TrEMBL record:
Membrane disposition: Peripheral membrane protein
InterPro entries to which the protein is assigned, alphabetical: NADH_UbQ_OxRdtase_su10, NDUFB10
Biological function: Accessory subunit that is involved in the functional assembly of the mitochondrial respiratory chain complex I. Complex I has an NADH dehydrogenase activity with ubiquinone as an immediate electron acceptor and mediates the transfer of electrons from NADH to the respiratory chain.
Protein name: NADH dehydrogenase [ubiquinone] 1 beta subcomplex subunit 10
UniProt keyword Secreted present: no
Species the sequence originates in: Brachypteracias leptosomus
Keyword Electron transport found: yes
Gene from which the chain derives: Ndufb10
Family: Belongs to the complex I NDUFB10 subunit family.
Compartments in which it is found: Mitochondrion inner membrane
Length: 175
């Protein structure tokens, strides 16, 4: 600033905001209510919650990473063992979902590669194209033509018929 500046026009702000010090003999009812609420409601709830969190910390359970044990395949179930049939069906459905997700991930990888590489994606994304072709062929071989209502039994029959056709073709070729 220049030497002839008017200090009254540009006052320096106070360093501290003044606090009103109100002292009375009557206690504030808000403080009394907060203290009573703290001891009656908040403290017990906080104690119970912390105790539950300590118990849960001892044995962590991640619900989103549920692991199922592998069960026997439908072909390994005994005749009339309906519980085994049900478990094999549930296992087949989980396997189908996993295989669908694998195909979807490979599709996303190929799409990301095409987006990243631009016009050169034909030569630079050849590995992803080959992987997607292999994965979709494997998925089609296993689950293709089953439809929406496909189940483990029809999938097993489809695989059995395919194996019989391959053996027949192999036997015809060797003769």
């Amino acid at each position: 600033m220049t030497k002839d500046s008017d200090w009254e026009a540009y006052k320096v702000p106070p360093t501290r905001t003044p606090v009103s010090e109100r002292t009375t003999s009557v206690p504030n009812p808000v403080n009394i209510f907060q203290t009573i609420f703290n001891y009656v409601v908040d403290a017990p709830v906080t104690f119970v919650r912390e105790w539950i969190e300590r118990q849960q910390a001892k044995n962590k359970h991640y619900y989103y990473h549920q692991k199922f044990r592998r069960v026997p395949d439908l072909s390994e179930c005994l005749e009339g063992d309906y519980l085994c049939f049900f478990e094999a069906e549930a296992q087949w459905r989980r396997d189908r979902l996993v295989d669908q997700q694998i195909v979807e991930i490979m599709r996303e990888r190929l799409g990301a590669c095409k987006q990243r590489e631009g016009p050169n994606h034909f030569q630079n994304c050849a590995k992803e194209v080959e992987q997607l072709a292999q994965v979709t062929k494997a998925y089609q071989d296993r689950y293709g033509d089953l439809g929406v209502h496909g189940n483990a039994r029809t999938c097993l029959m489809k695989q059995k018929h395919r194996m019989m056709e391959e053996r027949k073709a192999q036997a015809d070729a060797s003769q």
